[in-house]
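[Target chain]
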Amino acid sequence: MNEVKKRMSELFKPIDQQIMMCDDGNETMMLACVMLQSAKDILDSQLGTEGRKKIFNGYGDLVVDKP
């Protein structure tokens, strides 16, 4: 595993633990929403609004199957 992937895995461990602590779907959705807002804030502060929009818009192309 390269160093970037290794570090990303380390950084994700506390998030994964929080996901496992969710008792039901509602809590999982609440966590997902707060994580999404946090990710948006981080991307805005590091890349600016336009950079964040490029990432979010580009990500949709990766996960949605288009005919």
The mean pLDDT is 87. The radius of gyration is 15 Å. The chain has two helices and no strands.
